Amino acid sequence: MTAKIVLLGSGELGKEFAISAKRLGCRVVAVDRYADAPAMQVADAHEVVDMLDGAALSRCVRRHKPDFIVPEIEAIRTSELLKLEKAGFSVVPSAFAAHMTMNRDAIRELAAKELGLRTARYAYASSAQELADAINSKAGTKSGVGLPCVVKPTMSSSGKGQSVVRTKAQIGKAWKYAIDNMRGDRKVVIVEEFIDFDYEITQLTIKERASLGGGIKFVEPIGHRQERGDYQESWMPCPMKSAAKRAAQTMSAAVVERLAGKNGAGIFGVEFFVRANEVIFSELSPRPHDTGMVTLRSQDLSEFDLHLRAILGIPIPEIRYAGPTASAVVLASRESERTPRYSGIEKAMAIPSVEVRIFGKPTTRKHRRMGVVLAQGKTAGDARNIAARAASLITVR
Ligand SMILES: Nc1ncnc2c1ncn2[C@@H]1O[C@H](COP(=O)(O)OP(=O)(O)O)[C@@H](O)[C@H]1O
Ligand SMILES: [Mg+2]
Predict the structure, then answer these.
(1) For ligand 1, is residue 283 a contact (CB within 6 Å)?
(2) End of a domain among 134, 168, 193?
(3) Is 157 a catalytic residue?
(4) Does 12 qualify as catalytic in the annotation?
(5) Does residue 158's CB lie within 6 angstroms of at least one atom of ligand 1?
(6) Neighbour tally for 86: CB within 10 Å
(7) Are 252 and 240 in contact (CB under 8 A)?
(8) Which of 194, 233, 282, 290 most suits a substitution to test ligand 1, by most atoms within 8 Å of the C-beta?
(9) Residue 88 annotated in active site
(10) How many helices and strands, by DSSP H and E, does the chain display?
């Protein structure tokens, strides 16, 4: 066995990470709140645990005594990860990184206040009234976030509970939507100035082990498009002016160094909005990023391979790119507890260059991500068209 890994979160990203780890002879214990989650289907063992329950989380880790605890999601009792790290367990990329990114506010404060990164104007609110006050300029004091703006629960992911507010009349509804769809028990939202960006990117950034020099490495920027706060398609290359690209790399390095610390290692997905010459930090994942699924096809070392190498302290040589590549998601259209059935996969895969990954999620919800299509083309635009067309041929029932 190369190493024993407890994977906290067993979705599609965890599944691909588990496959990378299995290929290198690791033992993987996949953990999630529900049985038959995607990563559990390829892992050596699995546990169904409420990872927001600190005691249950600790029992699970101590039972398996892993070499590495690898979080795959944000909704984990990260204060327990801090304790486990103190007790000698290795948390990836670091317990601090997981803890700071569990809620949107902690990482935003670190990025904007401590590191001075450019972000959208923002404020927090813990009631509908506070939200209205945060948006509207407060009489005689500092101005508010203004309209339009984006309201998000401080704990949520994949756009859950997130909405754009364009008029004052929509504020109450946005508050309720955020609170009804948040994770955890903190009724706090972040409200951000709406950035009318030209495009947005994920800057995958790797922090290597201190034993290898602790260097920072970058994957080429990934362009992506989101709907309802959730990723629909991503592509590489995503051409950027060299100054903008450098700015994204400099900001990524700063936040990754801070979160990983001296001993941390792993891949991070750092998100930016680009508007004219401005590069605006949005948020980050201290782990593989959903838009980074395009790297399953765009290069020799996927974001999952890179994460694993960084964790195990294996060198990361220069990445070899395979040319313009895109990913497009396959979504469910309705809620059902029945095992999903897929049709049209053979039609999609009849298109040259197209590959399909079905995650194997046991149930569906409207807009739930069930699979992804990968395609290559002459240009990134061409690859996007092919991936989108192939994804549209697949239906989930
Ligand atoms: N302040 C903003 N201005 C414009 N678009 C935004 C803003 N915040 C979020 N979005 C859009 O919503 C998407 C999801 O928001 P994000 O903060 O990344 O949440 P999540 O953690 O769910 O990915 C972003 O990728 C972007 O497309
Ligand atoms: Mg995001």
Answers:
(1) yes
(2) 193
(3) yes
(4) no
(5) yes
(6) 9
(7) no
(8) 282
(9) no
(10) 12, 19
Closest of 183, 231, 186 to residue 33, by C-alpha: 183
> What pTM does this model have?
0.97
Does 243 fall in a domain? no
In the chain (397 residues long), the average pLDDT of successive 10-residue segments reads 97 98 98 98 98 97 98 95 98 98 96 98 96 79 85 92 96 97 92 98 98 97 95 98 98 98 98 97 98 98 98 98 98 97 98 98 97 98 98 97
Query: Looking at the structure, do residues 132 and 83 belong to the same domain, yes or no?
Result: no
In a domain, 99, yes or no: no
pLDDT of residue 143: 74
Q: What is the CATH number of the domain that holds 141?
A: 3.30.1490.20
Q: Is 120 in the pocket of ligand 1 (CB under 6 A)?
A: yes
Q: Confirm whether 139 is domain-assigned.
A: yes
Q: Which amino acid is residue 234, in one-letter code? A: S
Our answer on whether the CB atom of 146 is closer than 6 Å to any ligand 1 atom is no
Ramachandran angles phi, psi of 278, nearest 5°: -95, 135
What is the reported pLDDT for 141?
54
Q: Smallest Cα–Cα separation from 73: which of 24, 120, 37? A: 37
Residue 285, domain member (yes or no): no
CA 23 to chain CA centroid, Å, is 23
Last residue in a domain, options 193, 222, 253 = 193
Q: Which domain holds residue 369?
A: 325-396
